[in-house]
Amino acid sequence: MINGTFILILVGVFVLFVTFLALISRYKRCPSDKILVIYGKTGGSSAKCIHGGGAFVWPVIQDFAYLDLKPISIEANLTNALSRQNIRVDVPCRFTIAISTEPDSMGNAAERLLGLSPEQIQELSKDILFGQLRLVIATMTIEEINSDRDKFLDNISKNVDTELKKIGLKLINVNVTDIRDESGYIEALGKEAAAKAINEAIISVAEQTKIGETGKAIADREKDTQIAETQRDRDVKIAITQKDREISIAAAGKDESIGKAEAERDARIATSEANSLAVKGENEAKITIANSDAERREKEAEALRIATAAEKVQAAKALEESYVAEQKAESARAERERSTQQANIVVPAEIAKQKAIIDAQAEAEKIRLQAKGEADAIFAKMEAEAKGLFEILTKQAEGYDKVVQAAGGDTNSAFQLLLIEKLPELVKTQVEAVKNIKIDKVTVWDSGNNPDGNTSTANFVSGMMKTVPPLNDLFNMAGLDLPSYLKGKDDKQIVEVKEVKTETPPKGEDGAGHS
Question: How far apart are CA 142 and CA 179, in angstroms?
Fold first, then answer.
């Protein structure tokens, strides 16, 4: 009894242990790069989506699967997309997408993407990407697509993200590698922008060069003026110093002569016995004094002349250097004016010229394309008409060949057969020629004397009937012969007309009258 109870306890423990292990194995944890999708009996919703954490999956009534959150890179090289200006462009792009972790989007992904491989998801997404990319390009101009890339990418993100959410995806990134068009419009815009930037740079360089040259000319002029003034002051001071030195030398010579004269005078007074020598000495002293005075005056005049000449020379040099500085300033000003004219007139003219050339080239290319399209259309139409005419003539030739074969190879018989086929139309044409001629009554006034022996009535009717080709000739051309009762013998048997013969015409008539 004890052993049986122990065995039951062991069995119960084993069952509990197995049940515990089974329950633990049904608890599923979700990695951060996946979405856990629990489907089956989930309480009203189609599936329960968990990102992060874990959940218990009931056996039998529930099951689970994972959705991978790893990004998917899709290359979308869109070609010949039509812009708002009806210009076709090529827009190679690369999109990076992934399954969204938003609650609503995870439910959409569980419903539409569960069980699909990454390649299948990529193909499904590519159709949406191409369609939305074409839609965005159709609402924008070439200038907006090429210059305002932020707006272009923002429009793509909004449109694409909205559509991808419907299948549980989201747009991570979009990269536009390059934009091209087959007509060269974008390249022309680039050339225009480059030419504009180059011209603006040239204008800026010319302006800075002008400012530099002007400043340099002003600085050179001020430097030359200061140098001239310094040299002038130095030369004036040298001349004044030289003049003072000469004057001092002359004054010293004069004092020396006066001292000698006084000494000789004292000697002459003291030595009265030597009158002759004194007189001679006095005369020599006078001569010496006179020569000294002359030399002094000559040196004073020479010093004054040198000083005056030096002043004039320095003044002339200063004036000349001033003129040179002013000339350089005028040259700089003229160069500045020329640079200004160059920047204000020549550069805009060059820009306008380049723009006109680009516009003319674009217009010529447009005209060439239109002319080529019209020529191709005319060629296709004429080719189709020529083929149709060729087929008609070929079938007619085959029909005529069969007619000749049916006539036993006799071309004359074949011609008669074809003419018989057309005979009703020819007869109808001749009847149409005279059916509208209405003749109610013919009255002939005639004397009955005609050179040919016929009456005027017969001649009139015969002439009218001869205006239409005879039916007998037509039958002869076809190789046929009319019955004799239809041919007639002469004009008198064809038409009978009542004749009224008179010997004299009515009053007021002098010949034959017809009405």
Answer: 10
Tell me the whole-structure pTM to 2 decimals.
0.36
Under a CB-based contact definition with an 8 Å cutoff, are residues 254 and 292 in contact?
Answer: yes
Contact, 414 vs 405, CB < 8 A? no
Total domain count, the chain: 4
426 and 462 housed in the same domain: yes
The closest of 461, 466, 467 to 496, measured between CA atoms, is 461
Judge if 35 and 123 occupy the same domain.
no
Same domain, 154 and 202: no
274 occurs within a structural domain: yes
Q: Is the pLDDT of residue 310 over 50?
A: yes
The two structure tokens encoding residue 352: 């306008």
Burial of 156 (0-12, 13-18, 19+ CB in 10 A): buried
Number of H helices, E strands in the chain: 13, 11
Q: Tens digit of pLDDT for each residue in 315-333?
A: 888 778 878 878 887 887 7
Q: Which of 65, 88, 118 is the last residue of a domain?
A: 65
Given 154, 182, 210, which residue is the final one in a domain?
Answer: 182
* Range(s) of the domain holding residue 24: 2-65
> How confident is the prediction for the chain on average, in pLDDT?
76
Q: Determine the Cα–Cα distance for residues 332 and 117; give it in Å rounded to an integer.
A: 78
What's the whole-number mean pLDDT along residues 18-29? 76
pLDDT at 456: 61
CA atoms within 13 A on the CB side of 25: 7
Q: Are residues 91 and 163 in the same domain?
A: yes
221 and 344 in one domain? yes
CATH number of the domain within which 163 lies: 3.30.479.30
Quick one: which of 197, 187, 176, 228 has its CA closest to 358? Answer: 187
End-to-end CA distance of the chain: 158
Cα–Cα distance measured from residue 254 to residue 256, given in angstroms and rounded to the nearest whole number: 5
18 alpha-carbon distance from chain centroid:
79
